[in-house]
Amino acid sequence: MTKMTKLKAISGVTAALLASGGGAAWAQGAPAGDAANGAKLNSMCIGCHGIVGYKTAFPEVYSVPKIGGQHAAYIVKALQAYKSGERKHPSMVGVAASLSDKDMADLAAYYSAGPGKVASK
């Protein structure tokens, strides 16, 4: 199977999962997010995710992703993985450790509100 064929197969499975409501099941149990409160909480995000083209140098050079427009469920799951230690980036582990489930949902609601949204002051 070629790379392109594999990518098409993965895309098809992802589309089928989302169409069947699988995306909703992924976020099940997460509190509803309040985007207005997320806007107030994002000061810990702006220093990295609010700078276009930003790269961290610790623990290695890493291109910081834009999180504006990302799916809320993905953001919550990523933050939970940093908090649990499943994901290992030291800065994100530290940030996530300070967040409650409600804080995570609020930040996710804020950042998922539209494409290209960056952290604000």
Give me the Rg, rounded: 16 Å
CATH-derived architecture of the largest domain:
Orthogonal Bundle
Kindly estimate the percentage of residues that lie in beta strands according to DSSP: under 5%
CATH superfamily of the largest domain: Cytochrome c-like domain
Structural class: mainly alpha
Q: In words, what does this structure look like?
A:
The chain has 121 residues and is mainly alpha-helical. The chain has two domains: 1-30; 31-121, Cytochrome c-like domain (Cytochrome Bc1 Complex, Chain D, domain 2, Orthogonal Bundle), CATH 1.10.760. The chain has seven helices and two strands; from the N terminus they run ααααββααα. Strands 1-2 form a two-stranded antiparallel sheet. α3 crosses α7 (101-111) and α5 (72-84) packs antiparallel against α7. The longest helix is centred in the N-terminal third of the chain and has 17 residues, at 3-19. The model is unreliable at 1-27 (pLDDT under 50).
What would you say about this model in short?
This protein has 121 residues and is mainly alpha-helical. It is built from 7 helices and 2 strands; from the N terminus they run H-H-H-H-E-E-H-H-H.
Key descriptive features of the protein:
single chain; 56% helix; two-stranded antiparallel ribbon; Cytochrome Bc1 Complex, Chain D, domain 2; mainly alpha; 121 residues; 2 domains
Topology at a glance:
Elements: H1 3-19, H2 22-26, H3 35-41, H4 43-49, E1 55-56, E2 62-63, H5 72-84, H6 90-97, H7 101-111
Antiparallel strand pairs: 1-2
Helix pairs in contact: 3-7, 5-6, 5-7
